[in-house]
Specification:
The protein has eleven helices and six strands. It is mainly α and about 375 residues long.
């Protein structure tokens, strides 16, 4: 099955991805992601958050890596490198998908520093501050190799061609759908079907509302430039969360009886909710841990192989609180919340369901990709 019909959700909603690029936020009031921004004057760029209305732009580089290579980028084991920030919810989708589908050997991984400098995402976590495969110090170098003088944001997740060093795509909404459909020949034995054909219409419908009001909604609230704008966005967030809580009260997963792309997309926001969105983005009508259904659902996913083992709370907190100086000018990172609750029993298995459908759980996290002790409960 190809991905020709696999990318409708969010197509008109714009791009996600955590972004940084000289002047990106200062010039337009936001960056291309609602995420972090670097710039020729990083402090000025990051201080732009909350000064102008938030608007999410579309991905500029929307090429696809497909089984038939119709965009010029055929699926090929070892050819591409996935560049992510462990802080970014949009990049985290790709991390979870890659783990569940067993693509670790076929698609190598690069992790950037959660804190950018004036050239944006950087590989300072690697020896000598250079990615060992791509040989570059900044992700912007792959963007520039693709399009000289590209003026937009440098966002993650990004897929880079290791042969040419060029960016292939930063289209986060299509990337995970293609991993689930176009990359099937490279999936591990027992990989789950995260975007099953019979359920796609329902999955798309559920994802559309979650994207608009939750995934993107927390950013609209956090970067609001007026009281009315903030209140409208915050109400949307909690209205959708309450509706989703009712949906999950008697079913283990959002669509069908096993994990799908919809669960991945909701999880990456929920896992950040109490740590950053509740306080930092002022989405504070209630905490995730105060909704019994959503809190149990989130813990169920966190404790499922492929989900929690990709989450680094240290990167998440430091990125949001240190980078968004427009809404947290002191850069102080809070000590809380207590993360121990993520490991407590959730009892969601009583609702039935089969996490991996007819498939199996992914294997252990590859050596070198384990989340640091500082980032775990």
């Amino acid at each position: 099955m190809t991905g020709d019909d696999s990318g409708r959700t969010e197509a008109a909603s714009g791009s996600g991805g955590e972004t940084g690029r000289p002047g990106a936020a200062a010039a337009g009031g936001t960056d291309r992601s609602g995420g972090a921004t670097g710039g020729a004057d990083t402090a000025k760029s990051n201080a732009a958050y909350g000064k102008k209305p938030f608007k999410r732009s579309k991905s500029h580089f929307a090429d696809r890596v497909t089984a038939d290579g119709r965009d010029g980028w055929p699926v090929e084991a070892g050819r591409y490198r996935l560049v992510v920030s462990l802080a970014c919810p949009w990049a985290s989708r790709a991390l979870v998908s890659r783990r569940l589908l067993g693509l670790e050997d076929a698609l190598s991984l690069a992790v950037v520093d959660p804190i950018q400098d004036d050239r944006s995402w950087r590989f300072t976590l690697d020896p000598d501050g250079r990615d060992p495969v791509l040989g570059i110090r900044y992700l912007s170098e792959a963007y520039d190799a693709r399009e000289t003088g590209y003026p937009g944001g440098v966002s993650v997740p990004a897929l880079v061609d290791t042969d040419s060093g060029k960016l292939v795509t930063n289209d986060y909404q299509q990337l995970t759908l293609d991993l689930a459909t176009e990359w099937r020949d490279l999936h591990r034995p027992g990989a789950p079907d995260l975007y099953p054909q019979p359920l796609r219409d329902e999955i798309d419908d559920v994802m559309e509302g979650i994207y608009r009001d939750v995934n993107n909604g927390v950013y609209r609230a956090g970067f609001a430039s007026s009281q009315s704008e903030y209140e409208a966005a915050c109400r949307d967030v909690f209205h959708r969360l309450e509706e989703t809580s009712r949906r999950l009260a008697h079913r283990r997963y959002l669509v069908g009886d096993s994990l799908t792309e919809a669960d991945i997309r909701l999880f990456t926001t929920l896992v950040r909710f109490d740590a950053v969105y509740h306080g930092h983005f002022k989405c504070n009508r209630w905490k995730l841990s105060e909704d019994p259904v959503l809190w149990a659902y989130a813990r169920d996913l966190y404790q499922t192989p492929g989900f929690g083992d990709t989450v680094d709370f240290d990167h998440i907190k430091r990125h949001y609180y240190e980078v968004h100086t427009g809404i947290n000018p002191t850069g102080i990172v809070p000590l809380g919340p207590d993360l121990g609750g993520w490991l407590t029993p959730h009892h969601r298995e009583q609702l039935g369901g089969r996490p991996f459908g007819d498939g199996t759980a992914p294997g252990p996290v590859p050596e070198g990709e384990e989340v640091s002790v500082a980032g775990r409960p």
